Amino acid sequence: MFPIQPSQSSATSPSGSSAPRASVPPAYIFDAVVDGEAYHLPAPEQPPIGILLLDGSVAQLSSDKVVLRGQTMDIPSDLGDAQEISSGGQLITAQPGPSKKPEGQGSGGGGGGGLFGAIGKALGGAASAVKGVADVGKGAMDLATGTGSSVAGDLANTVTSATGNVGNLVSSLNGIQEAFPLGELSQAGLDAFSGVQNLGRGSLDWMKSLGKLAQGFDKLSPEVQKQARDNIQEYAKPGGQLEQAQEAMRAFEEFPWESEAPATQVPTATGTPQPTDTASDSQSRTTTIASSTEKPEPTERPSGEYIISSKPGTSLETFKKFTQELNSTTGEIHTWDTLKTQMYITNLTAVVAEELPKQYAFIQKVYLNEVIDESIDGSLEEFRAVKGSQSSVTPQSESIRSRNTTDPLHALSKESVSKLDSRALTNADPDAPWWKKMISALPRDVNQPNSDPSHDPPYLTDDSGGKGTTIYVLDDGFDLDLPDLAPIDRQVGNAFAPNTLTLSGIDPSRRFIAGIGGGEHGTMMAVIAGGKILGIAPNTDLYLVKTKNRYRNSQFAFNGMVHTGPVTPGALQWVLNTVQDHILQRLDKNDRARSVINMSWGRPNRMGEALNEHFETFFQFCDTNGIPVVLAAGNLPSAAPLHENTPQRFGTATNSIITVGAVRKDGTLWPDTAQDVPGTAGSLTVFAPGEDIEVPTVGGRIPDNVNGRSGTSQAAAMVSGLVAFYYSWPALSGFLFNTGEPTNSMKQLLTSHAWTRVPAQGLTVKPPNHPPLTHLNVIYNLARGDLPGHNDLCFLPAGPVGKRQNNCPNALPSASSTLSTSLITSTATSGSPLMTSLPSTDISSTTEPSLSSSGTSPPIATPEPVKEQCRIAVAEFDDENPDNHEVEEWNIRIYPFSSNALLNNTLICERGASAEERTGVDMKCPHLGNGTLGIMNVRREANDALRFIWGDTTWTGDDERCILLSDWHDSPITSDERKRETECRFDCQIDAKLPPFRELTR
After folding, report:
1. Does residue 420 contact residue 729 with C-beta atoms inside 8 Å?
2. What is the 3-state secondary structure of 13-28?
3. CB 387: neighbour CB atoms within 10 A?
4. CA–CA gap between residue 193 and residue 201 (Å, rounded)
5. Which of 44, 380, 651, 891 has its CA 20 to 30 A from that of 747?
6. Residue 115's pLDDT band (boundaries 50, 70, 90)?
7. How many CB atoms lie within 10 A of CB 981?
8. 806, 715 contact by CB (below 8 A)
9. Are residues 563 and 623 located together in one domain of the fold?
């Protein structure tokens, strides 16, 4: 009952033979018999259809499956005859659908009049169908609103008549599609044909379902009657999908088919075209893509690299045929099988790029692959604290949200809740960092003595730890070798956008190899949210997605700098498609798979306008599927107020976006938190600790300066972990799936339990020019329950450590009612490009194997490295005084040297340490040999050159075997230190049987 309309056509047609020919999807004509009624299945390129059944459940009809009362029944791809399909006690029959073949299927002979003669015969049926649908719409609205004289019995009779007329029209169109190659039609003609065919199927299914409900309406339960009335009002309202079906039928009836047809095949409503012997007899019946043989050739040279993206639901066969016809698939294709969408990167002229969406209904957008602007520092997109910055924005005090005790979260009765099974709390940890203690502190009167955050009790948490949820962290890269990111008793997958999209316009010789690593900011975010040791949700699954890459300012980077590219529109679309596809894969396996998205970054609107269309589509997907999206508010002055930043500008008080500000150790506002301004876009949701959050970044190194450890990014990562933590409680999970507003229930849960940690006098501690604060609500993990008498829906009484009870709703709806009816697609059989599957029951992807020997999921097997050469990568971190030659920080890694990107990034040894410059670091690496061959010393000489000493061999960083990746420059962690990166190759023999060796000290 919820089909989504395809693109509508106008009643005009391009003139004559110059009309662009259509790309035609294959005919798909199948039905599913559900509870004794035959319903049309949508075509593969069309979205699913939902039908309301007599028991109040919703059946989801897709081209390749039917989801009925929580059970999925796959439709065989080679279905020829009627076939019963069952699962979990549910039964359907899949069968070929009705198809009325035109008389005489030749193009011009046999009395049938060819394609256009057959269309002419169908035109008369369109008029009857329009009237029938209009009558049903009026009668249905009368039943739903009680404003008319129609009763359910009268409506049932009206539906019977209308379904006969619409069914005949759809059957005729099915027969035409099977009998003739529709590639003769222009794109406008095909739109008119497919519009009435697809919307006709959807409206027919809806009317059949309505007829069954109307026949026994008085016998339905009050709950199902209400569902039916609500559904009628939504479907049959002005501008609703029933009216859209009427418009499609009118467009088909009024379309100027005479301008499409050859002179000998002009269709008429009487269906009496005159066949002649001059019409082509060579046309053959086909169910594959057809196109004009008069393929226009471009008249100008390619003017740029473009990205062509298809609409969700497009079959891969259709898209590949299109790229082959366009330019023999000379470009680069990326596919997302579950989302059923594709991307093609290729050179086009501007004229061709403009015309393609008009010619092909399945093309969503064609746009230029944005060339990197090398004047933009992409690292500024990550919200890093800036030393000495102060807020200059004057937001209103209303932007600091208070607890709302009247929202629906507190409104359920005692009868609707049940006890939570006893859960084990972990041992209270007095040595935990302050930020963990803050979020587990029981609400208290902070105006009393000794009640400020410095008196928070030891950190307490639940043993669930986010298990069963996946946190998607979208950031600048990740160090998968960190113990915190190990796949121990969980899944850790990753994906990264290709250099074609992240570094367009940058010479390939200057690009870093595409891979998941290199992200100092992203690594910290992943550790805070879901680190196995330090994270808020240590048992959650992680899916880490790299949005950008780095490049050198010259081919060889001698005395050069390394730069980070900004997020580009193409890379963002690739990343968001990949995340959606992975989520849908998990939902195909488990319709209650839980997800949370973390994006601790943003761009000013003036720089990010091209990103907004992709963000908007993605946020609609998240709203529809009830997926929280956690955004960092941003840090001033690098971030503007929320309405001036994207994606922060998309947040509202009720959608699934959770925008997070930061507080200091004393609970006061982190002064650089970007604010929302009343009356403008963006909405600040909640606060979390954001000052001095000490977690490791790349190589296990902890940023030395507090500014490298602070900001709203850290606060947002903390909230992402807490969302996963909440989801892992069975009773809270039950509530979050049973709410009437699934898209914002998590937001309500967070805000209703957040509380101000600042004494009354502390609220006056604010940035200059900031109005007085009345609230500063910081997240709470509920581990210690709520205060007695607290009227929240999820009241958790404090109890002895080890067990507790709670009162939260636990009744779950049927599985079918929790899913989006517009976004369920077929099961994927393969991952997206540049991704390989981890050996697990979930679907996670990676291109760098995990090297943790303690993980329960073994790393991907890789071939033994070629035992010829190794490469050693040295990163030095020194203070800003070049004359100070005392202790500096070192991170040293050794890899095989190989042209194979996977092998080339397989770490074999690593050392992180603080050591004197002149004596250096002894790098242990047993893979290289025994005795002195198992140790390499790296030091800095008086002339500032690196010296490498390995057994009897020695060389310097100036040797031809070495390359200076980046000379001394300000560290991206903090401006108080400098950083230099060097890489050398050397002859070696590697013992590939040994596990990776790591030694990290501080």
Report:
1. yes
2. CCCHHHCCECCCCCCC
3. 13
4. 12
5. 380
6. confident
7. 18
8. no
9. yes
Whether 990 and 940 share a structural domain: yes
Instruction: Among 785, 820, 837, give the residue marking a domain's end.
Output: 837
The answer on 877 and 779 residing in a single domain is no
The C-alpha atoms of residue 813 and residue 70 are separated, in whole angstroms, by 10
pTM of the model: 0.52
Do 364 and 402 reside in the same domain of the chain?
Answer: no
Please state the rounded mean pLDDT for residues 1-23: 38
Residue 273 located in a structural domain: no
Q: How far apart are CA 638 and CA 634, in angstroms?
A: 8
Q: Residue 414 is encoded by which pair of tokens?
A: 């005692």
Nearest to 729 by CA among 753, 759, 703: 753
pLDDT of residue 578: 96
Is 242 found in the same domain as 303? no
Whose CA is closest to 504, among 344, 370, 353? 370
pLDDT digits (tens, 9 = 90+) for 903-951: 666 788 999 888 999 899 999 999 999 888 999 999 999 889 999 999 9
User: CA–CA separation, 760 vs 767, rounded Å?
Assistant: 16
Is 624 a domain residue? yes
Query: Does one domain contain both 618 and 746?
Result: yes
Answer yes or no: do 603 and 729 share one domain: yes
Burial call 45-75: b when 16+ CB within 10 Å, e when fewer: bbbbbbbbbbebbbbbbbbebbbbbbbbbeb
Catalytic sites, residue numbers: 475, 521, 713
What is the sign, positive or negative, of the torsion defined by CA atoms of 623, 625, 626, 630?
A: negative
Query: What percent of the chain shows pLDDT beyond 70?
Result: 73
Radius of gyration, CA atoms only, the chain:
32
pLDDT in tens, 552-575: 875 444 345 778 888 999 999 999
Residue 123 sits in the same domain as residue 245? yes
Q: d(Cα 476, Cα 703) in Å, to the nearest integer? A: 17
Range of the domain at 730: 378-386+398-796+829-837
Count of CB atoms within 10 A of residue 782's CB?
A: 25
Residue found under tokens 């999925």: 72
